[in-house]
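Lab channel / #folding
Pinned by the channel admin:
"Please post every new chain as: sequence first, then the structure tokens as a reply. Keep commentary short and put observations after the output so the thread stays searchable."

First post following the new format, from NK:
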Amino acid sequence: MSDKEVTVFTHPTRRQALTLMMAAGSAGLFMPNILGKGEAQAAPPAKPTGKVIIGFSQEPTVFNPHMPHIEVDEGVSFSIFDPLFGIGPDGSFYPALAREVPSVENGGISADGLTWKIKLRDDVKWHDGKPFTAEDVKFTLELLVDPNFRSWRKTGHEHVRELTVVSPTEITWKMAAAFAPYASILAATFIVPKHAFDGVADKNTAPFNNAPIGTGAFKWVNRVAGDHIELEANADYFGDGPYLERVIYKYIPDLTVLYTQFKTGDIDVIGLQYITPDHYDEAKGLDGKKVDVVPMATVESFSFNMEKPQFKDPAVRKALYAAIDKQTIIDALYYGLPTPTESYMPQQSFYYNPDLPKHEYNMETAEKLLDDAGWELGSDGIRAKDGIKLSFTNSTTAGNHIREQVQQYLQQSFKELGIEMKISNLPPAVMWGDYWMMSQFDSVVVGINFLTGADPDTSDYMKSTSSAAKGGAGQNTWQYANPTVDKLLEEGGTIFVPEERKKIYFKIQETVRNDLPLLPLFQYATVRGHKEGVDGVEPNINVRIDSWNVASWYWAS
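Reply from TO:
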């Protein structure tokens, strides 16, 4: 971005302020196509051919993309649904259901950011053959803020007013306030069909939620719970592709088994949670396989339920952080692949704060923090204060053997301090269901991509009103509440100049680093792989899962 462009966006009401929203990636994240780099690719087939089996370690269980869900569910959503426009690996937006990405220049967004006009394609059909229209867009945006619907995200959408269907191919609305992250939010908002909910009294239990109908490149066929999901090519797809007849999402919870099935060829693409670092040396030499290390925006953390009494004392959280030998965990268990971090913000982001206090592993410091805070050892060897024992459970996905080793290592370290950590791991579908979403846990080891596309807004995760357990819409499963962070998030959403926004998000990172609702361990570097001959697989750091462009995948003949 040039200096001239920066000086133009001095206030969101000035001319072209919203142009920045359409170029969020220039001040956000990017990911070059390093899978297949330098390789000549064959042309895709003239009609869908063959199938690809994608292995996931977690089972997708949420098929309405607007209900609370995690990354793995989006793997299926990208196949079935489309947004108005999406975001590519370089951070730029591309049109999908919209004929063009709205901007100030094309009249899609007013200069003050308050009026939006979206022109839609006229050649799109839902999987059941009914036409896609502006009524579906209106329904989707209204569904997200429906107080009777368990929405996964209201952030940004709550500013929308006066939704007006001008014609089947045009919709307009007003914004109660200009909101800088909204373009990135729309790029992550899949449109769902209004007619699928006609006559449904409770949208939370609609038949659609278990048999989704989309506009995407693939159509729902069936789900075998605990095993796989099968999709078939949408012959009426409006975009390029699909080039595959079928896509199978296979659920393999044990990461060693997941790798073994990739190694033996039972799966074609190894998806979430990818190849574990302990298998990397072998994997990169496998015949007929393409394997690369790819950075992700996801950050691994030891996260707290802040409403649990033992975690309300900041001294406890700081002591636990001091007792974590982060570098040894990275080197010994993750083979040095991930990068240690102090922030939830990915380090490739324009908004990443590199000046946060550096973590120091020091058991003496941890012990002193607890002693000074009045946590005294009991006869059972467990510290307590005011009748509260420093004892808690820690949970993660059963079958993730490296995380389980991390837990065992931490359990021993904490025990030396008089802290009891009991390990209670669960199957993925249980772990990341209400147990996580409704804050039923004590503490967890979890990896999260906190951003929406390249935008730094984390209202869904950090805002006090975004806790589902407290009746909000969002993924603040920590039940974290800090008025300063709430205020900064509100302010950050109104600023459109990257350099000015950066100050806000630097301060948010400082505050979260001080409060420690989560103990940041490292930013992911994932080992990804696919069979040679599967073309079109491309990493995209601006989305939360790698099957974002499965419509473009094909077998090279």
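NK: Residues 3 and 9 are 10 Å apart (CA to CA).
TO: also worth noting, The first helix runs from residue 3 to 8.
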